[in-house]
Amino acid sequence: MPPHSSSAAADPGDGGERESPPVRQALSDSVYERIKAMVMDHEIAPGARVGIEALARALKVSPTPVREALARLESDGLVVKRALSGYRATELLTRQGLEELFEMRLLLEPRAAALAAVNATEAQLDGIERILEEMQAQPSPDARYASYRDFAALDQRFHEAIGQAAHRPLLTDAVQRLHAHLHIFRLSNVVGAGGPTVAEHERIVRAVLRGHSERAAEAMTEHLTRSLERQLEDGGEEPPTP
């Protein structure tokens, strides 16, 4: 018969081991959000080296959750890992880069909106409306990442939901990838423009709900065009040459 201590260690009633992963995940998520805010707010400057040990000391955590956070930020496109030199914050997109990004979005997203107007399921239409309602309930964001984070997340969900409702998997994937690149510019097209963004989204939703594909495409085109104008007005200057 195995010793009693082994049986106790394997006792399913002992919740200590089961509680550890959620606690660790919560810490990892918290560190990720804190470092992401530092990058988005330029507390970690574009192109600057990101030291794991220094960040761990500043955040009063071990290096492990910092490494995990930086791996996630690398997949977000906000940091890059280079051999022998570690992590660095990515450089900002240039004005030309931003314009090219929106040029691609203008080619794809109006088409996605037009297809969504004729292909969306009832469940998808309900989901798009719910996202819009959540955006309408959000306070107007300011230029700090902590303020606009939730609004920007809803904005991304909105565009991805339109893409998914088009029922074109390749188009949906392209829309998601292009929208994710906005992080690299360190700006959000909703900063200081919560009201206009919501109003533009409302016009898109009305057209999609009514099945008007041409109007949906036009509304999306207008939204993206104005979004680019806001981005360029707020910070579209060429970054300094490194």
Poorly predicted ranges: 2-19, 236-242
The overall pLDDT, averaged over residues, is 84
Structural class: mainly alpha
Looking at CATH, the homologous superfamily of the largest domain is GntR ligand-binding domain-like
Oligomer: single chain
Determine the number of helices (DSSP H or I, runs of at least 4 residues): 11
**N/C terminus separation:** 70 Å
Can you tag this structure with a few keywords?
3-stranded antiparallel beta sheet; 70% helix; mainly alpha; 2 domains; Four Helix Bundle (Hemerythrin (Met), subunit A); disordered N terminus; Arc Repressor Mutant, subunit A; 4% strand; single chain; 242 residues
Care to describe what's here?
A three-stranded antiparallel sheet has the order 1-3-2. The chain folds into two domains: 73 residues, Arc Repressor Mutant, subunit A (Orthogonal Bundle), CATH 1.10.10.10; 141 residues, Four Helix Bundle (Hemerythrin (Met), subunit A), CATH 1.20.120. Helix content is 70%, strand content 4%. The N terminus and C terminus are likely disordered. The chain is mainly alpha-helical. A hairpin with a 3-residue loop joins strand 2 and strand 3.
